[in-house]
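Quick log. Single chain, no ligands specified.
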Amino acid sequence: MEQISIERAIGQALAEEMRRDARVLLLGEGVATKRPELVAEFGPARVRNTPLAEAIIAGTAVGAAATGLRPVIDLLFAPFLSYAMDALVNSAGKLRHLSGGQFEFPLVAIAMTGAGWGVGSQHNHNLEAWFAHAPGLKVVMPSTPADFKGLLKSAIRDDNPVLYFVDIGLLQQAGEVPAGESLVPLGRAAIARSGRDLSLVSYAKTVPVCLEAAARLAADGIEAEVIDLRSIKPLDLGTVLDSVRRTGRVVVVHEANRSFGVGAELAALVAEHAFDVLKARPLRLGGPDAPAAASIPLEQAYVPSVGAVCEAARSLLRCD
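-> predicted structure:
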């Protein structure tokens, strides 16, 4: 094990996969400038800065994937993905299906998302639900350095397009990462903390929020289980349902808009598949249906807090 930041874990994953497979290439906005060590090792043909032209970057990646390469593209901030929607959703997400499975489209699109830098709504917009709704695309949003590295390696090896969201507020967080080859499978959640009284289901930056809330609740004798989804699509529904069947209560927590989001899908799935064991209604905590603020204090008020998670948990226990 070594203690490294999420930023460094991403760099390690890229370097290891580029060494392993000569078809892997990295292109995007500032990638060669941000990662000169990759340019030095793999050369400018495989690590390329691009113009600020997201549609062209994504379109180039789709074409590269169709010819047998395994491109990784960095589009910087998640809202910029709106410029790349046609290539990602209408081409990368559909062409394998349209070819009857004859072609593969291995492509990873990296984008930063979430509160933490006060960059304003045109750079901070959590769009994971958009892409989870699009057939053919996979979506991951990890919370720990080990998962960032392991999921990126798995995403690069996957034969389908993967949206890889990096929560800005976590980027410089450090944690233990296993030495050597360590893959995290897409579509497998993790139990970040075990508990018996309720399930807190989350991903990305709100996982540590839920863990802190669980620690506070434990001081009052309430044992909350924390599930880190890691992958939004494919979704590890089995782990979520197993947890809810043990606890009988669930709160889904994410920073993205509460309206029409991942939390709504999970609440519906829990109600469909585990209604008979529920001791209280499923709850969702999420951001408001409004653009994110540029002000740091307002930005922090926008996202679910430890206090809000604790209150939601206690409200479910009062329903008994």
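The mean pLDDT is 94.
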